[in-house]
From TrEMBL:
Top-level taxon of origin: Archaea
Cellular localization per UniProt: Cell membrane
GO molecular function: transmembrane transporter activity
Transmembrane segments: 35-55, 95-113, 119-143, 155-179, 185-204, 225-248, 260-280, 292-310, 354-375, 381-400
Gene Ontology CC: one annotated term: plasma membrane
Protein name per its UniProtKB record: MFS transporter
Record domain Major facilitator superfamily (MFS) profile: where: 22-404
Amino acid sequence: MEEPSNGSDTGHVPEKRKLDPQLYILSFSKLFKDLGTGMLAFLIPLYIVGLHSSVFADTPIVVKAGIVATVFGISNAFSQPLMGRLSDRLDRRKVFIVAGMLGFTVLSFIYANTGEFEYIVFFRFIQGITVGATVPAIVAMVTHLSTSHTRGKAIGIYSSLRGFGFGTGSLLGGIIVNYYDFSSAFYVCALLGLISTFSVSFFVNETRDTSVKGGYAKIAHVKDLQFPVLASAMFMMMVGIMIIFAFLPEYRTRLDASELSLSIAVSAYVLSRIVFQTPMGEISDRIGRKRMVAMGLLINVPIVVGLGYVESIVQLISLRAFQGIAMAAVETPVMALAVELTGGSGVGSKVSTITASQAAGMALGPLLGGLLAGYVSFRAPFYLCGALILLSFLLVLAVVRDPEPSND
């Protein structure tokens, strides 16, 4: 019978900066599903171009691409707080991860046999719920397997491996479609999801919420504005990052780009984020998370605006790579700070407000980009996203503060 792991039961100071090996096992087990997630995010906006549609027959393709991405993000965002509260109440995480991965696997297989746009929209909505079941549970596990002294590093390692899977998945999807077809790519997604499902089932141990005496509980009030400000920062960043998925068909035409070159552009963001995610987490552990978050937000403003002016695939790839660096400076310290603000208790339900905001940004980004580009102008969404990110930068400066580390 497997014993729950808490990952931080040590009273020796040197041990506080050591990571539980289960963190690596969890991250590597989930890697295969992340590969599939990256593949689907890249494949579906291109796959729907050739699908029959009855309800949305006259809708611009950029809007249709935004719709299919948005329904996934909306269901993902709404399911996360619910699943987070339920997993905290049951004090169980592993069952949520396994169930969510199994749902991802089944739906990935179904895509290969779906020829209607409306069906794709429905299945992406359901898949968003299954993915939303896994996120708060995984964040809680990472928290249980780290301390306040290693939280930035732990989240950085987990996020780097997740990002590696997502970014490499986009590239893998482009290669498979380029040399085979969309159906083959969807079958590969299903196989990857199945591998992760079995890996988590057999190799990942359950964790328990034992940190009820947290070091940051004194500032973890419901009315504290830091949580909504951090959530808005993640939301704004994801809107600015995800609009590109609505523009993939448009970029293909404007830049005369192939599916493979576009997959490289999508992957450039994730792969550069991977390289900098863990270093940014470690640096934020030392110099302060607020400073790192503010820097990342500010850097992303001109990058987002610049995406509306690219004239070649090389420029698109370069800007996406710089955007990955900016996101690494925001995501890891935001998540680490949010975890500390919970006081170490009820992480799944409380931090899900941050992850749900991130998912909501993923949902709104493509739809906002598609609507503004389809009915206003191509560059309008890039200017709006840049302004929103600048606003979140100012809010972080005004509201967020770095607490002193606890002795856990």
